[in-house]
Design brief:
Blueprint: E1 3-9, H1 15-25, E2 32-39, E3 42-49, H2 52-62, H3 65-68, E4 73-79, E5 94-96, E6 101-106, H4 112-121, H5 132-142, H6 147-156, E7 162-168, E8 175-180, E9 185-188, E10 192-196, E11 208-211, E12 216-221, E13 224-229, E14 240-241, H7 257-263, H8 265-273, E15 277-278, E16 283-284, H9 293-298, E17 301-306, H10 308-324, E18 329-333, H11 334-338, E19 348-354, H12 360-371, E20 375-380, H13 386-391, E21 393-396, H14 409-427, H15 433-454, H16 457-467, E22 472-477, H17 482-496, E23 499-504, E24 522-526, H18 532-544, E25 549-554, H19 558-563, E26 566-570, H20 578-596
Parallel strand pairs: 17-18, 17-19, 19-20, 20-21, 22-23, 22-24, 24-25, 25-26
Antiparallel strand pairs: 1-4, 1-10, 2-3, 2-4, 5-6, 6-7, 7-8, 8-12, 9-10, 9-11, 11-14, 12-13, 15-16
Helix pairs in contact: 4-5, 5-6, 8-14, 8-15, 10-14, 10-17, 14-15, 14-20, 15-20, 16-20, 17-20
Bound molecules: fructose -6-phosphate.
Length: 614
Amino acid sequence: MCGIVGFSSLNKSAVGPLVNGLRRLEYRGYDSAGVALESQDGIKVYKQTGKVAELDKLLSHALPESERGKYTIGIAHTRWATHGLPTRANAHPHVADNGNLALVHNGIIENYAALRSGLEKRGIKFLSQTDTEVLAHLVATFDKGDFLVAVSEALKHVEGTYGIATISARHPGEMIVARKGSPLVIGVGEKDIVVASDVSAIVAYTHQVIYLKDGDIARITPDGIDVRSLDNSPVTREMQEVDWDIGSIEKGGYEHFMLKEIFEQPDALANTIRGRLDPSGGTAFLSGLSLSPRELAAVGRVVIIGCGTSLHAGMVGKYLFENLADIPTSPEQAAEFRYSNPIVGPNDWVIALSQSGETADTLAAVRESIRKGALVSGLCNVVGSTIAREAGRGVYLHAGPEISVASTKAFTAQVIALLMTALKLGRTRRLSFEHGDRLVKEIQRIPEIIKEVLAENDAIAKVAEKYASADDMFFIGRGILYPAALEGALKIKEVAYVHAEGYQAAELKHGPIALLSEKTPVVALLADIPGKEKTLGNVQECRARHAPVIGIVTKGDEAAAAAVTDALVVPHASPEIAPIVSVVALQLLAYHVARLRGCEIDQPRNLAKSVTVE
Ligand code: F6R
């Protein structure tokens, strides 16, 4: 949520790298953007509403190439509004000290109102409605000659979360960055230093990075980085190598990142699976979990926490853990969980699911579970993310960067990671070698099965044409396919702006059926799982109310194909894999409907990829 970039070089212009960095981070927020550039003449700020492309246009008029070389240090921001409308005045960077200081911020200053009124009483005039501007003035107020100390002192007065970068004409050549609750990574190149909210804005320059931790503050100059704690004690942070390459964060010939990421799933999932299956034992190795068979055997309950798509993956997890490991499992929406005074303790295994590893509610739920003594693991995609680090033990998805705001490959990778975890847990309990062996073989086949779903892309696009003008849709599924129905509805809502609701197939007749008509297509998940025949009955109920039904049906299932208005055919898969197979088809359906409706697929309105505020 909100993207920050900073660039510091001895001799290279900061303008291009800052704008490029913002483009990479645009998925984090895209309602306005801005840069602050430092030269010997002081600090210049350029801000624009709308996307980064609008800022780029502004810069190309305001700042000719011939002038850009003098700005070798700068900070930049792409915003997802929290306090105040997405106007130019509310766009970052915010300035203080008569324009001598500029600051960008990701996060929320919770006590900003009290701080602001204190500053206003001292005669400071505010230009925006943001919480961030308070921080800029606070830093300027504390500046008695040492920039890092001024920022530390200001931050000591702040309650809330922040990732910040700030520059000051009073301290030429210095950039101060700090984090608490919002991610910040420093990329260390041979001659340049790049700071960003995540590594996707860094890998074009370097693969050597330092992940700042909460409470860290760093002074960055073109030739060095000095990391400290807020009380100014030196802190050592290891340099790490990032293995994402630049190709993995570009569109690679696809029209949208969403489509690219849907099509990447065979490879992405092969990476999630690689090295984690043990065919000789009919089980999985998940060394990151660092739980002995004895500890696993002692687990009394699994709680899976997440938000949005990750929560849907967690809901699939319930079926997997309960059926394979015979263990009661509750999927919980992370925000509800954290505020419900959850009853968890040493015999409970809390598994946090998060693509970004930065979702504020999921992180808070992890912290609450750790406080209560539960075993906690993270299943995250972004390496080095806060949840991955704080959970202490866990499994990386290795699905590669997900840039499209709508999550696709992370969902399927999460389900596979949960399936392998359930398999491992099951094999320490009652699951037989034969059953484990069958599942290992099925998991090995997943990348090929997904290729078969993707081969249906054109057929799915054709069906999408027929329904692209619908404004309301229902998605129904039963058992392990119910969360897949929720995920299908979520995808089409967020990328195609179609009002859609996911229901347990049996629940439709308890009220929502009143809304069905020839104008409300129903998507029925009819892959081969126990209970499919019952869902076919529900399909008949829908058709009897004139609702057209799009069925996700298994290849060769003539009865299911005949029961629906339009069939999207998917390959045969075992029930444990059925949600993955069905959701890939639903991702393509949502994508094509969105394309036909002319939507901004990779950056849907009002959304942001990484929700780092509550
Ligand atoms: C939907 C989507 C969101 C995220 C949710 C959690 O396509 O992307 O619903 O799934 O915000 O994000 P993570 O997984 O990063 O914790």
